[in-house]
Specification:
Strand order of the largest sheet: 6-5-18-17-16-7-8
Radius of gyration: 25 Å
Distance between the termini: 59 Å
CATH architecture of one domain: 3-Layer(aba) Sandwich
Bound molecules: ligand MGD, iron/sulfur cluster, molybdenum atom
CATH topology of one domain: Dimethylsulfoxide Reductase, domain 2
Shape: globular
CATH superfamily of one domain: Dimethylsulfoxide Reductase, domain 2
Strand content: 15-25%
Structural class: alpha/beta
Largest sheet: 7 strands, mixed
Helix content: 25-40%
Amino acid sequence: MPKIHEMTNERVAFRTCPLCEAGCGLAITVRDNEVTHIRGDMQDVFSKGFICPKGSTLKQLHYDPDRLRHPLIRRNGVHVKATWDEAWAAVDAGLNGVIQKYGREAIGTYLGNPGAHNLSSMTFNSVLLKSIGSRQRYSASTVDQIPKQVASGFLFGSASTVAVPDLDRTQYLLILGANPYASNGSLCTAPDFPGRLEALQARGGKIVVVDPRKSRTAQQADEWVAIRPGTDALLLAAIANTLAADGLEIMHQRLGPFLNGVDEVVQALKPFTPEAVAVTTGIDAQTIRRIARELREASSSAVYGRIGTTTTAFGTTASWLVDVVNIFTGNLDRVGGAMFPLPVAGSGNTRGAGGSGKGFRTGRGHSRVSKYPEALGEFPASAMAEEISTPGDGQVRAMVVVGGNPILSTPNGERLAKAFADLEFVLSVDIYLNETSKFADVILPAPSSLQRSHYDLALLTFAVRNVANYSEPVLPRAENEPDEWEILAKIAAIASGLGVDTPPSAIDSQTIKTLLENVSKDSSSNIFGRDCEELFNELSSSGRCGPDRILDLMLRIGPFGDGFGAVPDGITLDKLIASPHGIDFGALEPRLPNILRTQTGKIELAVPQLVDDLQRLEVLCASKIDSLQLSLVGRRDLRSNNSWLHNIEVLVKGKERCTLQMHPNDAVRLGITQGSKVRVSSRVGSVDAPVEITELIRSGVVSLPHGWGHSMQGTNTKVASARAGVNSNILTDEEVLDPLSGTSVLNGIPVDVACI
Ligand SMILES: Nc1nc2c(c(=O)[nH]1)N[C@H]1C(S)=C(S)[C@@H](COP(=O)(O)OP(=O)(O)OC[C@H]3O[C@@H](n4cnc5c(=O)[nH]c(N)nc54)[C@H](O)[C@@H]3O)O[C@H]1N2
Ligand SMILES: Nc1nc2c(c(=O)[nH]1)N[C@H]1C(S)=C(S)[C@@H](COP(=O)(O)OP(=O)(O)OC[C@H]3O[C@@H](n4cnc5c(=O)[nH]c(N)nc54)[C@H](O)[C@@H]3O)O[C@H]1N2
Ligand code: SF4
Ligand SMILES: [Mo]
């Protein structure tokens, strides 16, 4: 419980920061229910006091006058305040109106990034999707990490089984397309990622960073490899090719019994010699060979790829090859290598008997217009605009957007904005009136993150230690202000036809009862055969409901859980609450073969989709390079977070961040001078941005961050609009995707730059 100093009515509450994947512990001082300051929680078992400049701004975010506290309804083109009853009536009329006219397929959904950091969304988004009952599902995944999940799904049998670098113990780390000094890490949950990298170097280890930009991480690294954008799959193929040519004895010794398809992959990688890929990647053959040998000879090594590898035309293949290299060096599932977390709650790979399973598939359906295959139950975000604009059966006529800003976050923002303007009904669950929610007929405001409980159900499944950390709400909600899960449950009730008067609690009880029934039927579960009614009563006896009750269940049936008494010293939510700085369940341990869910019970190295894609990769390898063609990549800034922290003055003040970085050679060639404004044009659009000439980027490459472009009419984010920047996704092309995962190509966009 928060510590209360009775005399001053001051308390310190502990809470995990929900802004990025690092999940740092915060110590929040509250006086008379007002937050006075926020600092790092020195006792947090994982972050140990570390925070970045964003962590303390949960306070500014909470008090931001532009943050929505009431529903808004659009009347005659203008958003006006509404009561919750009015808003629910409008949601009912809007959603059910479209369902009656066109059927359920006419309702599309976009689930945005903050949902991955939000216990309400993690427990109720799936309920919402089910009740809407449409296959028109979109999310931030297809502009982000889904290639890694598809590759992992094929290899290990489950898309949640992602190997993470064992940061605290590895002696050699090859990072491709990630800049944790800015992002604080992704698909590798590690608070104070920079500190962990510095510790790696301090213990004599080596870090190599592959990035077209000399990012802050590349500057700190022992070596920077300035790759040509979009060619990481080639580099990785050549590293794997070298390892295979040198001999795979260590791999066979350590991983032999778990592997299927090694020979096939080795054969398919034959064309990708270091010499063959050198020109296209821009990396000489000698360097590639040396890195391959360093990876093999290091006492432990791990390869880690992120946004710069996933959001490219070969995102899935590059992600697969990351693990092929980890396997070929014998470092998969090994201390100091790439390891599998054992999540305390909520992971698909801790359920069931383990060792084998149903395996993983994509393409269980195709999108209506471009016939893109489904992956993880969704279609590419890039297909949203055409699905909205193309007439015919199944055309999307309404969108439900939860915590997302796709107009700024997904390709061809201008086309998508036009499509959104044409929709018959848009519902947004958001905290701002911004570039996407401005299209909404109804905006339902989620409470501030300080007003709700927190547990990182998603991100802790990718953590470099097995950790659990729960936070209680720091501040109370206003009377009648629903929690976000209640909003989601109520939309679910309305969409499933239960009527606008159905209370969220009805959906909640049904959800947890279904969960209990499913788990108690699983013979490998620690509550197999138990009486569901009894367990339901036990879970509810504390008065708990909603996400907290679901979390309690997930903890108790998890690998460290108490199994409702079956394991007396096991974990429960009560025990976690009694440890406000979190509980550390230790360093990662090997999990093969139990973690596998492939049909064969082996790691499937040579899944046909992946091996076949190497032919497409050969075409890239042979493609002619136009040395005058500039290539656009993105970047992140420590003081920004995707599209939505730009309304916080302390984060955006100072030098302009939305600049086009360019190498001096290119600037001279194009007659461009420092600070001048240039027009950047691609196949789909153009934007004007100030130039920042810097040696910290490979020549031929330019970089613009995403998430900016706050100058649209009809929004209400005053601070952000005053420093609007430009939307880099006006330049990204919705027609260019990674075919295996449907992920948009956000890096390596051909662009022209000219003075204006
Ligand atoms: N060009 C380019 N584009 C990119 C990327 C890139 O690298 N380059 N990165 C991509 C990646 S990795 C991602 S994850 C996406 C992110 O893109 P989105 O999924 O669109 O997410 P955000 O931009 O973070 O927008 C979050 C929205 O949620 C709202 N919000 C914030 N907190 C809450 C909350 O607690 N509840 C609710 N309901 N709403 C909330 C915000 O106001 C905002 O409208 O962008 C992608 N787009
Ligand atoms: N401060 C801050 N932190 C964030 C976010 C944020 O917006 N701001 N967003 C969060 C989210 S949603 C995510 S998904 C993570 C992402 O976390 P990271 O993946 O670490 O994201 P970035 O910092 O964009 O780093 C990507 C790097 O890839 C490089 N790159 C671009 N193209 C290529 C290429 O073709 N090959 C290679 N090898 N490199 C390339 C870019 O120059 C850049 O340095 O960050 C999270 N954390
Ligand atoms: S690194 Fe991420 S989790 Fe930690 S304080 Fe900063 S924004 Fe929050
Ligand atoms: Mo992301």
